[in-house]
């Protein structure tokens, strides 16, 4: 059995930021990641993905994002960056180590991995993201829809759906980006419950994130309340223009799916080949089953990222756990420092016990 100060579950950006900050605070973190190599979930994101934040705002603590700070890096640059960040980390990182169960014990936690290894840790930070837990809303008739239903997590490139009739469900960045790129190869509608909201990527010559940072909104705990509801789609000009041009066309939410058809809000129906659910993710925390640490919606019970149920357990990378930036590259490091400091203060006796 291995004994560690801190076990970090997940070696994506949230886990890397946590391990880096922990090492700086004198801990010896062990990072356990289910994947076969570095990069978190980025290698599985769709091919055309380009960051909505410039390189300047996309670095983790301890290593700025390389290259022109004003450019918007593409997916593979993020993978390269996270690979380099992993190699430079002052921590033990184990890939192929899927955590199956975390159990609270007197003075810490027992962590069991799928290959039967057991780790004892004084503290645990869950940084396993949400990509393994795509959210699939129950839409009327969708369960018996005879066409193909795809979650955005499974979408890679437009060729796969060329020539088909596609309905994209959702109004966030992924929904609009996928619908717009598919619309060049397929007949595409995007459907949302409310209006689509757009945010210009650049304002007065500056990236939107510069303004978020300058105003303090990015890191303020009031940020999520001020910008509550649907996240606006960050638009470099292409997305709103595509919707205004009707390719893809934007429609109100359908009444139902029926066999191989969709019945739109106005009662008209048509055959559809593929429904793409761009409906987001829930925290992927199956290893906390039975601990009481996760609420009914799948979101852990926490205060600023520190579990209110299990002393010594924290979370990094949850949507809006502290601020608008929480589940982003630029936010991971700040949240990691905040969570670790609170965790260590509250659970100090656990850390001391494991030394
Ligand atoms: P992940 O990257 O999902 O990493 C989690 C890690 O945990 C994985 O390596 C996985 O193998 C591991 N894991 C899971 N379960 C277990 C387990 N049981 N045991 C051990 N390991 C486990 N953010 C930005 O800042 N800018 C952007 O432009 C941007 N674009 C995005 C576009 C898309 C399509 C999506 C989905 C997200 C985007 N994000 C963006 C948000 C965010 O930065 C990413 O989702 C990021 O991958 C989250 O990092 P993470 O480390 O929290 O989780």
CATH topology of the largest domain: FAD/NAD(P)-binding domain
- What compounds sit in this structure? flavin-adenine dinucleotide
Low-confidence stretches: none
Q: What's the β-strand tally?
A: 21
CATH homologous superfamily title of the largest domain: FAD/NAD(P)-binding domain
Structural class assignment = alpha/beta
> What is the helix tally?
8
Keyword list:
FAD/NAD(P)-binding domain; 2 domains; 22% helix; binds flavin-adenine dinucleotide; alpha/beta; five-stranded parallel β-sheet; 8 helices; 355 residues; seven-stranded mixed β-sheet
What report would you give on this structure?
With 355 residues, this protein is an alpha/beta fold. It has two domains: 206 residues, FAD/NAD(P)-binding domain (3-Layer(bba) Sandwich); 108 residues, FAD/NAD(P)-binding domain (3-Layer(bba) Sandwich). Helix content is 22%, strand content 24%. It contains eight helices and 21 strands. Strands 1, 2, 3, 4, 5, 6 and 21 form a seven-stranded mixed sheet that branches. A five-stranded parallel sheet has the order 7-18-8-9-14, covered by helices on one side. Strands 15-16-17 form a three-stranded antiparallel sheet, with no helix packed on it. A hairpin with a 2-residue loop joins strand 11 and strand 12. Helix 1 crosses helix 7 and helix 7 crosses helix 8. The longest helix is centred in the C-terminal third of the chain and has 18 residues. The radius of gyration is 21 Å and the shape is globular. Bound molecules: flavin-adenine dinucleotide. The site of flavin-adenine dinucleotide has 35 residues, from helix 1 and helix 7.
């Amino acid at each position: 059995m291995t004994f560690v100060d801190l076990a970090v579950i997940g070696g994506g950006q949230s886990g890397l930021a946590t391990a880096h900050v922990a090492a700086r605070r004198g801990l010896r973190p062990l990072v356990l990641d289910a994947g076969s190599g570095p990069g978190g979930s980025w290698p599985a994101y769709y091919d055309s993905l380009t960051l909505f934040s410039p390189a300047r705002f996309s670095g983790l603590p301890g290593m700025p994002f390389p290259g022109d700070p004003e450019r918007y890096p593409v997916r593979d640059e993020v993978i390269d960056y996270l690979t380099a960040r992993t190699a430079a980390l002052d921590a033990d990182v184990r890939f192929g180590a899927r955590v199956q169960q975390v159990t609270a014990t007197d003075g810490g936690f027992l962590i069991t991995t799928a290959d039967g290894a057991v780790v004892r840790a004084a503290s645990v930070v869950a940084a396993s993201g949400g990509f393994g837990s795509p959210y699939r809303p129950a839409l009327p008739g969708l369960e018996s829809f005879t066409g193909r239903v795809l979650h955005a997590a499974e979408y890679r490139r437009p060729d796969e759906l060329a020539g088909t009739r596609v309905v994209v469900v959702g109004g966030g960045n992924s929904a609009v980006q996928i619908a717009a790129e598919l619309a060049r190869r397929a007949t595409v509608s995007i459907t949302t419950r409310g209006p689509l909201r757009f945010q210009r990527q650049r304002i007065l010559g500056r990236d939107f994130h510069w303004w978020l940072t300058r105003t303090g909104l990015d890191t303020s705990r009031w940020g999520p309340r001020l910008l509550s509801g649907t996240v606006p789609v960050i638009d470099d000009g292409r997305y709103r223009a595509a919707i205004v041009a009707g390719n893809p066309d934007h429609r109100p939410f359908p009444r139902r799916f029926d066999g191989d058809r969709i019945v739109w809000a106005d009662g008209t129906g048509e055959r559809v080949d593929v429904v793409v659910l761009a409906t987001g993710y829930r925290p992927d925390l199956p290893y906390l089953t039975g601990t009481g640490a996760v609420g009914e919606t799948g979101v852990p019970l926490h205060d600023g990222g520190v579990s209110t149920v299990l002393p010594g357990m924290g979370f990094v990378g949850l949507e809006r756990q502290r601020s608008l930036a929480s589940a982003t590259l630029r936010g991971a490091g700040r949240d990691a420092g905040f969570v670790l400091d609170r965790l260590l203060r509250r659970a100090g006796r656990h850390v001391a016990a494991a030394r």
